[in-house]
Amino acid sequence: MKPLAIVATGACTPVGTRAWQTACAVTARQSAFTRLQMPDHIDHQASVARLSAIPDAEAGTERLIRLAAPALREALQAEPSVWPLERPMMLFMALPQRLEELPDGYIDAGRFQLELPRALDLAAEYLPMRVFEGGAAAGADALAAAYQFMQKKPAAQQVLIGGVDSLADTQVAQSLYRRGWLKVNRHSEGFMAAEGAAFVRLGRSAAGGQECALVYPPGFGQETAPRVGSADLLPGTGLIEAVHQALKAANLNADALHAFWSDIDGSPWRGSEAASLSAALAASGGLPAVDDPAAFVGQMGTAWLPLMLSLFHEMRQAARHPLMPQSLAGHTALQSVTGLDERLAAWVCAWTPAHRSPT
User: Fold this and answer.
1) Mind spelling out the 3-state secondary structure of the chain?
2) How crowded is residue 234: how many other Cβ atoms within 10 Å of its Cβ?
3) Hey, how many other C-beta atoms are within 10 angstroms of the C-beta on 359?
4) Spatial CA neighbour of 158 closest among 127, 207, 204
């Protein structure tokens, strides 16, 4: 199957309530980190990134819906707009992984599927949804399922993938703190809980214009142990496996890559993995330069994959700069994401001239 084209995106993050705002903030190296009081110790405050417009009292499923609704609306209304929906559009949605410390039903997938269309004043049948509950790699599960759907349904022209997470939800953050994953002693050691949502509309062909952003199927890997909460240096075998799968799916060599997007967060284990990956890619030039959106938006959990696709798609602004326009044709990015468990995923995005876009 030919690669799917990114038609439109939407995002809602602490640094911007639109995809273009988030992209501009990340490019300008801006952040929205604040401090969240942890229980039992008056001097224990964790660095988190939260949406100040959402009251602290809104938590769990309700908070996820508040995060997801504006991002989904943006993805549907962005040009070429499909709003209001005239026919059903399939949505593959990544939701947060379950934490055993939280009460049953704290994240209710069934309620989310029912309430999200209502938040946009849509009938549920116009937004059929398949949910993937898991870590950050759940977004890649959603992308893989979207590819399978488009292959089985040749009449479908577009599909939605999305992700929403709130690691900065007070109860979730406190749970991570009790596990020892949220550091509070003056610095965060790289892991900063955040929240946000992102959606990507994928189509069989480009939306028009001079360039077209393509996304290829993801590859998956698994490390021998979870990363967070461990000081051990991991060998990076899972990351290497995922990257090789992603490069094979895109039929590209590593030396064709111009950028490497990752949720690398400064922890020793991630640096070890990146070094191992660079060594594995040495024959084709090694690891490309690493860009690190997590340093500005925090850890986005299951929202990672659609958010990074949104950031990549918003590079189109560079082609329209009035003073320093840049050509995006040929720009390729290897993106990867890791979660709070052993699973990880990688995938490739590429800009190509519109006349060469898939049909």
Assistant:
1) CCCEEEEEEEEEECCECCHHHHHHHHHCCCCCEEEEECCCCCCCEEEEECCCCCCCCCCHHHHHHHHHHHHHHHHHHCCCCCCCCCCCCCEEEEECCCCCCCCCCCCCHHHHHHHHHHHCCCCHHHCCEEEEECCCCHHHHHHHHHHHHHHHCCCCCEEEEEEEEECCCHHHHHHHHHCCCCCCCCCCCCCCEEEEEEEEEEECCCCCCCEEEEECCCEEEECCCCCCCCCCCCCCHHHHHHHHHHHHHHCCCHHHCCEEECCCCCCHHHHHHHHHHHHHCHHHCCCCCEECCHHHHCECHHHHHHHHHHHHHCCHHHHCCCCCCCCCCCCEEEEEEECCCCEEEEEEEEEEEHHHCCC
2) 20
3) 8
4) 204
The structure tokens listed for 208 are 């028009």
Residues 316/213, Cβ–Cβ less than 8 Å: yes
Task: Give the whole-angstrom CA distance, residue 296 versus residue 87.
Answer: 37
Give the total residue count for the chain: 359
Instruction: Summarize pLDDT for 177-224 with one digit per residue, the tens.
Output: 888 878 776 555 567 899 999 999 999 987 666 688 999 999 999 988
Supply 8's token pair: 């439109």
Residue 50: CB atoms within 10 A of its CB come to: 24
* CA gap 221, 232 in Å, rounded: 18
Evaluate if pTM is beyond 0.85.
yes
How many angstroms separate the CA atoms of 120 and 339, rounded? 29
Whole-angstrom distance, CA of residue 172 vs CA of residue 178:
10
Here the tokens at position 225 are 């142990």
Cβ neighbourhood burial of 37 (10 Å; 0-12, 13-18, 19+)? middle
Please choose, from the candidates 304, 296, 264, the residue with its C-alpha nearest in 3D space to the C-alpha of residue 29. Answer: 296
Which tokens belong to 221? 């890997």
The residues facing 198 across adjacent strands are 11, 163
The C-alpha atoms of residue 316 and residue 305 are separated, in whole angstroms, by 18
Alpha carbon distance 70, 131 (integer Å): 19
pLDDT, position 270: 66
Beta carbons of 329 and 353 less than 8 angstroms apart? yes
Nearest partner of 199 among 160, 156, 166, judged by Cα: 160
Q: What is the pLDDT of residue 359?
A: 44
